[in-house]
Amino acid sequence: MFKYLLGLVVTIAVILVAITVGANNDQVITFNYIVAESQFKLSTLVAILFGIGLILGWLITGIFYLRLKVRNMVLARQVKRQTQQINELTTSLNKAA
């Protein structure tokens, strides 16, 4: 619970810093992208790119987290199966002796 609260506080702090840095930049710039070009305020462009980076970061982290969770479930199932096999073997050896 504490790590989630800490993560939320850090995320909010980073967003606030990005907003304050972006709010001081009122210059209009031309942003060229592959298909066309547009004119944005620098603060708007910083906020948009920061948001896109934040979302991409969360998505990539989420993908790796889910992969680890699935791998952990597979390994836990494998350990459970192997423990059951060991118990069956020791039981059958005890009956044979």
Describe the structure.
There is one protein chain. This protein is mainly alpha-helical and about 100 residues long. Helix content is about 80%, strand content about 10%. The protein has two helices and two strands. The chain has helices at about 1-25, 40-95; strands spanning about 30, 35-40. The protein has a two-stranded antiparallel ribbon.
Summarize this, please?
The protein has 97 residues and is mostly helical. It has two helices and two strands. A two-stranded antiparallel sheet has the order 1-2.
Biggest pleated-sheet summary:
2 strands, antiparallel
Average pLDDT, rounded to a whole number, is 87
Q: Number of helical runs?
A: 2
Task: Provide the spatial order of strands within the biggest beta sheet.
Answer: 1-2
Distance between the termini: 52 Å
What is the tally of beta strands? Answer: 2
Secondary-structure-derived class: mainly alpha
> Which residues sit in consecutive blocks of at least 5 with pLDDT less than 50?
none
What characteristic shape results from the CA principal axes? Answer: elongated
Radius of gyration (Å): 26 Å
Strand content: 5-15%
Query: Helical content, roughly?
Result: over 70%
What string gives the helices and strands in order? HEEH
